[in-house]
Structures are given as structure tokens and as C-alpha cells.
Amino acid sequence: MTDLTLSSGSRRGLLFRHRRSLAGALFVLPCVLFVVVFFLTPLIMTAWMSLHNWPLLGAHRFTGLANYRELAQDRAFWSALGFTFRYALLTTPLIFLVAFALAAIVERRVVGVGLLRTAYFLPVVVGLGTASVLWVWMLNAQVGVLNAIAQALHLTAEPIAYLDSPGSALLTTSLMIVWKTAGLSMLLLLVGLQAIPTYLYEAATIDGAGPWARLFRVTLPLMRRTFALALVLSVTGSLLAFDQFYILTHGGPQSSTVTAVFWIYNTSFGSFRLGYGSAMSLVLLVILVLISVAQLYLLRDDTEL
Amino acid sequence: MQHSRVLALTATFALASAAHAVTIDFWVRNDDAGFTQPLVKAFNASHATQVKLNIIPSAQFVAKFASAVAGGAAPDVVATDLVYLPAFAAAGQLTDITAQAKALPYYKTLSPSHLRLATYGSKLYGVPYSAEGSILLYNKDLFTKAGLDPNKPPTTFAEIQAYSKKITALGGGVKGFYFAGACAGCNAFTLLPLIWASGGDVLSSDGKSATVDSPAVRSALTLYKDLWNSGQIPQSAKADSGTDFLNAFTTGKIGMAGSGAFAIGTLKTKYPNVNFGVAPLPGQSGKSSSFAGGDTMAIPTGSKHPQEAFEFLSFCLSETVQVEQFAKNGSIPVRSDLAVNQYSKLDPRFVVPARAMAGGRTPYSTVYNDIFNSNTGPWLTMIQKAVFNGDVNGAVKEAQVSITKILAR
Predict the structure, then answer these.
(1) Contact call for B370 and A252, based on CB within 8 A
(2) Phi, psi angles (nearest 5°) of residue A35
(3) B-chain residues near A271 (CB < 8 A)
(4) Which of A92, A107, B197, B365 lies at a C-alpha separation of 20 to 30 Å from B309?
(5) Contact B340/A at CB under 8 A
(6) Do B238 and A59 touch (CB under 8 A)?
């Protein structure tokens, strides 16, 4: 704003402004192009397809809002969405508790802490699909290492089937996801923790605050933004869950672990109904946007503007 | 000088012939990779037309094929699970090869199930590529130990029950029976024949209505339920999504399990210690049946070289390929006139699936995937509810409703 008032009226200034804004546009252009090509175009195409009876193979025809009307009454989709929310409600607090504990452990500057940080973060680097396959074989009844250990220790006579009931399938998959993703949340929380200046703790201690008071009055309020970021990432990740259930439980037993994305995948590539799948994707997108906005609003930071 | 002119000449010649020879794109699902690679090699060595092989993971075959078609880059030949043929043909994606196929001298010997599935609206859209028939595997050593005759496999549901009980009684982790409780496709392959052999079916013969709510379906499910409830199937079977479909039997601790011809070769080469027998899958009271599976070859409508593509199709069906490539490597020929050959004679166990194949059945449906293959579909849901929850009646009625709903879509 300042250089605008200074140079207004002079021709050179106008040219300069013009060139500056052109340069600015050029700098954001790659990003805009990327968003247009890889986000907006597919989004508009999805919306267009959702108005059609669009099979995976063969000709499509326009059906207006028929897909959305069917969706409103599709029990399978809404129960998949319900399961997805239950899964998110189970994993999110688990991930946060574990991540916060891990962050508290690795925040201290002691010998060997680098090793711990790496160890906790390592599962994050493994792809989700790869990690799921790894667990499939670790949990396997015939050759799995977990059962081999349990049987060698005489904890169980017959191999444990970790995925054979709706409850145990959900719990096992959730634990696998906590192992897989807690490292990332830990990293985010660690950055937040280290950003709190030590003099605040010193001041609080002088004022007579104990460890719990320091945690609740200093640490947590100052980490509000970090929490918001980690929470939105974690909740979005949980609500879009697919790979882990596709690979570990295949949606079973008895379709009890089918997530929203899993059902969209099934409809699009199992039933070959791309149009209907698109309609479900859009509904899920709207729900996700609403939830993210709500989270960011609740965890907004008014302390500085 | 002389030398370089010769070189130039050969180069021109090579270029000319290369421009002349057509290269066709052949897609096959990864299960077939083993016997397809040598087959393509043999074809390329003896023909001007060259085949470029593309191996596609089974689970992604339909999606990849669809995107290739949408992108105008359809392959020239596809070989995939025969159950997809009605859906592909109904979508107008396959070339009508009725006249060419019927002109083949051995047309009448081609696997009838493959041809039936490749027929849509009285036109033929594919020919068999590979054959796979479901059978009952049983462990001869366990039969002997349990005081049973290892040369008399069960022929009725009651015999399965009785034999399984005796084998389970051996103890030490040995169980009488096995099935993969969370694998939709595995059970279509091994449980449907029990229903067929008992005189029932899940779909009507035209594939347009559901016939699940029937005594034959109930009795087959009740057999599994009773075996499960009396502890004759390992607990781990409940969550097996197919990874242990064969693995469980190879441990040597399973008395009987439904399986396919593919298992014979694997058991022979990799598990020589398992002394196994092969029998037809029985019905409730004496008959037997088999799921006639395998892959079918077809020419997508987008192919620019349908003529050369058919040349490759007929090569695959030739006696040399069927016997010297397929039978020799332990798979079943797709021509009934070659079912008994010099290699099948070496091991009579190969004859059972070959015979079963010829009399085998396959559900015909454009929504096969939805009903039978999907792990969230009505077929698997019904089995799990009937066997593990013990509610055969409720499961059957629910499946009748949900299959009817899918068929009406």
C-alpha cells in the first residue's frame, strides 16, 4: 500500500505497478494451473457425471438428479458413512493421545532422542497400502508372526483370528492406523511444543504454577493452532479411510467395516456405476468441507490479529 | 564399400518387414502370466504378426480396460475371467466373432461354459483361453489315519459330515473341513457346485431372476453351518479373505477342502509331502458338479487389427498350444477332444477336473461381479450370516431380496 501512494501520478510508477502485478500473476500461475487441471476440472467432471447414468463401460445417458434421489434412500451408503464416523471418533482421540505422549517423550533434549524420533516416525514413511499388506501377513492365522509369538508363549492354543468379528476388525484396523499415523501428528505437535518460548514456563513457575497448571494454562492454549492443523488432517484422513479396510478386512465380516470411500469404490468399480459413484463422492465432499470448516471455527485463535 | 551396402540393404529390408508386420496388444490378467509368457514367445517366433503382452492385476482388469477404451487405446485381444463376458458384451465393447469361430474345425469341442458366457443376444463374442474347474481336495494320509478308505472320497453331504467328524477326532490341530469364510469368489467357485449338485441354483438359467430361496441352497448352507458349529473347521476360516484358500490345505492338517484344478500343480511341485486325492464336489445325495471357470479371449471393438487378433486366438486354441503348453504345465485344455492327452495320463488326478469342467456350470449374469464377486455383495453376506451367525433361513431370505434388487437395476 505504501509504494502505491508514493508513486501514484507518475507514469513510471504505473508501469512499475503493472509489471509487479504481472510478475505476481506469473508466480502464482503454476499453482493456479495445477489446481485447475488436477482439482477443478476433475471436480466439474465428477459433478457432470453425477447427473448421468454413466457405466464404467458403454454409453451414458443424462438422468438429471436421479442419482441423488436414489442416494437419499440408499441405506448402504448412509450406514457406510455412519461406520466411517464411528471409526473417525475412535481413531482420532487415540492418535492424539499417543502422538501427544510421543511428542512429550521426544521433546526433551537427551541422548538417543533422535533415534526415538526416527523410530516413531518411521511407519509414516511406509505407504498405507504397503503397511496394510504387512499387517495382513503379520495377523495371518497360518503363518503370521503375531500368532506364532502368542502360540510360542502358550497364550493361545488356536491361532487368534484378529479380524473375525465386527468389533475386533475395527479395533485391529484402528490400532494399525494409530501405529501408522501417530508419528505424523507427533511431529506436528512437537513443532508446536517447541515453538512455545521457555520464558513463559519460567514466568508461570515463578507465579507458582505446577506441572498440570503449566500443561493446561500454558502449553495447551498456545498449541491451539497446531491442534487445529493436526486435528483437521487426522479427521479428514479418517473420514477418507479406504486402503486399510480394503486390504485388511475387505469390508468384512458381513460388510461391517465398509467406509464411505470403500462404498464409492465398490459402486464405481465393482458395480461399474461411475455416475452414481460420482454423486456419492460429491455428497461426501460437501460433508467433509462442512466438518473441516466447523473444526477450524471451533479451534480458531482470536488472541492475535 | 561392399560391406556397408549390404548393411544398408539389410537395414532397409528389416525396416520394410517391420513396417509390414502388425503388432497386436494382448492384455491378460496376472493369474495367467505363468503359461501366457511362453505362449506369446512361441507365437512371436513363428508368426509375422507380433504380440505385445501386457499383464494386468486381476482386481484392476475391468477398471484398466474401461479407461483404455475411454481413452481410445483399447487392446487388440483381452483374456479375462469368463464371468465378465456378458457385462462386456452387453456394454457393446466386444467384436462379434460368430462366423470366424464357427468356422474353426474344432469349434464343437470348445468348452461349452465358456461359449455360453461369451454369447450375448445370439452372437458369440469370445472363445475359451484357459480352463479351471472346481474340485474337492482331500488328504489321503488323514483319511487312512481316521480309518477311512483313501480311495473313497465323500459323495454325499452326509458322508462329508461323517468323514469330517472322524478326521477332526484325530486331534492335534487337525480339522475335517476348510473353506475361506471371507472370500466371495472362492465360495462361488466351491460352494455353488454343492448347490447345483443338489438340484438348486442361485439365479435362473437366463440370469434374470433370483432363485436363492430354495431347499438346495438351504441344505448346502446347513452343511457348512453344522461343520462350523461342531468345530470341524478352523476358527481362522471365518476371516480368511482368500489368502489361505489353498494354504490351509497345504499344512497337511485339513481333511477336505473345495479347490480348483490349479491346486493340483501347486501341490505336486511345492508340497510333495501332502498326499492328496481329487474328487468331484458332491451334492446332497450323490450327484456332483463343478464351477466351470477360467478365462475367455475376446477382441475389443476398439481393435485396429481384428484379423490379426483372430489369428492369435486360433493359435491359442491349436493342439500344439493346448497340449504342449497348457497340459504339459498342468492346466486343463479348453478343448474336450484334448482333455485326455499324454500328460494327463501321467497323473489321473488331472482327469477329474477336466471331466468336471466339461459337465460344469457357470452363472450367466451381466451383474455377476455385484452378486458373487464383491466381498460386500449378497452372496458372501448370505454365507457368513448362515454359517457364522447360524441363521440359514434369514440369510437366504435376505439374499433373495438383495439379489432381486440388483437384478432389477
Answers:
(1) no
(2) -65, -40
(3) 367, 369-370, 374
(4) B365
(5) no
(6) no
Rounded to 5 degrees, φ, ψ at A225 are -65, -40
The amino acid at A173: T
User: Residue B205's CB: how many other CB atoms inside 10 A?
Assistant: 12
Task: Determine, for residues B239 and A158 on separate chains, whether the beta-carbon distance falls below 8 Å.
Answer: no
CA A301 from chain centre, in angstroms, equals 22
Residue from the list B65, B93, B375 with its beta carbon closest to the beta carbon of A252: B375
CA A105/CA A116 separation, integer angstroms: 9
Closest residue in A to B234 (Cα–Cα): A158
Distances (CA, A) of B116 to B83, B127, B293, B317, B372: 10, 10, 12, 17, 18
- The CATH classification number of A71-298 equals 1.10.3720.10
Report the CATH number of the B133-291+363-408 domain: 3.40.190.10
Query: A140 and B243 in contact by Cβ < 8 A?
Result: yes
Total-model pTM: 0.81
Instruction: Please give, rounded to a whole number of angstroms, the shortest distance from the CA of B375 to a CA of chain A.
Output: 6
ipTM given for this complex: 0.75
Domain residue ranges in chain B: 133-291+363-408
